[in-house]
Structures are given as structure tokens and as C-alpha cells.
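Lab channel / #folding
Pinned by the channel admin:
"Please post every new chain as: sequence first, then the C-alpha cells as a reply. Keep commentary short and put observations after the output so the thread stays searchable."

First post following the new format, from NK:
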Amino acid sequence: MSNAFSGNLAQLKLMDVLRLLHASNRTGQLELQHEDGRSGEIYFDNGQISHATYEDAFGEDAVYGLFSWGSGKFTFMADITNDERSTYLQTEEILLECVTYATEWESVRRVVPSARAVFRLSTRSMREFSLRAEDWSVIQNLDGQRTVGEIGDLTQLNELMASKVIVRLFDLGLVEFAGEREDDAEAVDAVPDEVLHQAEKELTLAIGPMAPIVLEDCAEAIGYKLSQLPKDMMPYLAERLAEEIPDSERRVKFQEAMLEIMQHLYS
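Reply from TO:
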């Protein structure tokens, strides 16, 4: 094997790539790129997985998360190392767990093609069924616009668990496929980070150090992850935040500050 090689995950599965690097005792960086812009990195040290990153995940969780991809490109560069150590299991154990994840994702993909898939409540006739708590949590977030990935974040089920619930609901005839969102980055004109920081600062003045948590919770209460909050939802967020301020004088000051912030946001 050469010091650098690359390929397509549609042709050479991630499991096969990991097994190859492990069996050949390679040291280097495996970089993965998805066509939707997501990326991940897995570092090998003499065939052992030593560190991995994917979105907010590290270590074994990052490796398992990358099995959600049905396609993408990979590049391995030998002798590129990273001093961080985020894995705790032996690579043999990680690979055994990866087999489970690969199998689960393969079964999910017959219904949920990707994290960008969108589902809605079905108009099909339904047979008898009973719903579990996680079924309800997903149903409540099905609006024909949110992606499976977004629903996984909102329900805190993660993408795989949310996908498995949707497969179950699909098989029951409760939901139907509505298409895939082509480009999430352009789909939402999100509130800039600096505006969210200003809102957090004003909320901290009103209620104290719990402000960051309250801000996240209120955003989720209106159906959005804070980092993906559309600009046109900012007034609704401000209203929810104001309701969390028990002191009437501080509430008024907060509302005035938020009005000024929104005037700049929409100008």
C-alpha cells in the first residue's frame, strides 16, 4: 500500500478501509469528506485508532457516527499524526462495534436515505399500533420541513435512533417520505452568532448565569437548535425568553434591549 491513497465510500466501505489500515499497521490520518460538507478524521498509530473527530463527537463515538454516511470520499495520508488520544477501546473492539452500526445503518437506509431526508405524517391507511415515548417525540417534530438530522438533535435521540424510530413509523404507515433537502446551509437564513451572544448577554443581566441554558431550552421549545435559528423566529425566541424573567422591571429592560438588537438584525 502506498503512503497516500484515496477512494469513494460507495465503492470501498468504511469498514473495509478501517480493517485494511488496522491489519497493515499503518500510521497516519484518514480524512473523510461528505458531499454535503460534513467531514471527519480518524488517526492511526501503528494500526491502532488513537483519535477521531466528527462534528461534536470524539473518539469511538466519532468513528461510529461516520457509519451514518452512505457515500463520501476518503483520503489516507501516512505519517500525519495527532498527539490527542480520544479512544479508550482497542481497535479490535471498536471494529466489532462498528459491525453493529454498519448493519443498523444498512437496514435504516431502505427508508431513510440520508440525514437530509424529510418526512411528514402519512395519509395512508393505518393498521392497529401502539406508540412509545420516542415515537411521540419524533412525531411532534415532523413538519415536512425538518430533516432527520435536525429531528435527531431536537429529540436528543441522535441521528441513528431518530432514523430507527422513523423506519418503525414508516412501517406502521404513520409517516411518508417527503424528499431530501439539497443544501441545509442555504435553506435557513440563520441568526448570526454575534446577535445570539448579545441576546445571551442581556439575558444574563436579567436572570444570571443560567442564561445560556435558558437560551438553548427556549430555542428548542420553538422547534430549533440555537445555532440554526432562522432570523424570522427571533421575535418568538425573545418572547419566550422574556417569559423566563420573573422580575417585571428586568423583563421590560430585556424586552427593550432585544427590540434594539432585532432592529439591527433586520435593518
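NK: The longest strand covers residues 39-45.
TO: also worth noting, The first helix runs from residue 14 to 23.
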